[in-house]
């Protein structure tokens, strides 16, 4: 008897998804609630669990197909090795490979099973790690995981791929020409070495998430009257406060004190003086909010996602830092939910973690503004008539000029600058 596997509910207003990857093949043993497929929605990747234990049966859709919520995508056959312990293998079975990583080259298909014997048995791979394993062609059962409970992380897989590449034998030297002194005719305008180089192209279908990101960014450009204004901020006071209290802060709250909590707090403070930055246009009306839900741009394996810090105006520094840390971990593991990214009244994007000096961020519709943070860099500035070196950061505020005037945008950045350069303002609400 076979059990149907259907597409689960994906979230409010989400009616379909793309089948990104089959995690099991027909004939594979599966356990109850074990992921058998990965779905890509407009914002997140969702795993489809097996409703029962048994054997993977017929797969009714292919990778890349669009599937609706509730549609049957596969069947699980009753029985199979998943319901009971696997039988002992005979002593004469071939020994496992001695190499620390998969012998297949990068890019070749590698079967990933959760019932393999040996050191890698009962592997549990997140969607992002599983995809990376397949792309790089490494054997996860031969990699020692450094994550929680010995799980594999992306860094573990990347390190194994580097080791595999370093251990690969060098390519053979090019064969000598058949006739001594003979030379191939040289095309005019083409370097002599160009003919010996192999040129390749690869076409990769855009993921559903990437398609959605592209569509929404273009929608923002086509709809909003976007403009960006800049300011710079002296990070000396914040850095001194962080260095002074970071150990006590971590000891008390079990979380490190970062810079993002200062900027979230400063943005909340500035939004009280300039409420239009925290509002948005809906039809011919302006919707103002008496709360601040801050969307924080986070880089995930499949693209940029923006989980939301709810009621940031009521949270402490520690609560903000814990929320951001949790978002970062779940984004890397691919476990953020649709609910995590719905809503948001204002966005903060920190390009500085990648080394960006200055940029013009794009608004996240239907919001009316986004703050861009950048790297901290020592630059000469004038203080009390003296040229001194100070840790400076450029701030960029992109805003919808239909709602936010230039004066309001500049005022918002000035309020943030004042709060960052004098963090006491954050404590006394000034």
Largest sheet: 7 strands, mixed
Anisotropy-based shape: globular
Q: What would the average pLDDT be, to the nearest integer?
A: 80
Number of helical elements: 9
- Domain count: the total is 2
Any idea what the CATH superfamily of the largest domain is called?
Chloramphenicol acetyltransferase-like domain
- Helix percent reads 25-40%
Structural class: alpha+beta
N- and C-termini, Cα separation: 69 Å
Give the tags.
OB fold (Dihydrolipoamide Acetyltransferase, E2P); alpha+beta; 19 strands; 9 helices; Chloramphenicol Acetyltransferase; 430 residues; 4-stranded antiparallel beta sheet
Brief account:
The protein contains nine helices and 19 strands.
Structure commentary:
The chain is of the alpha+beta class. It has nine helices and 19 strands. The strands form five sheets. Strands 9, 12, 15, 16, 17, 18 and 19 form a seven-stranded mixed β-sheet that branches. Strands 1-8-6-3 form a four-stranded antiparallel β-sheet, with no helix packed on it. The radius of gyration is 27 Å and the shape is globular. α1 (127-136) runs parallel beside α2 (154-167), α5 (260-273) packs across α6 and α5 crosses α8.
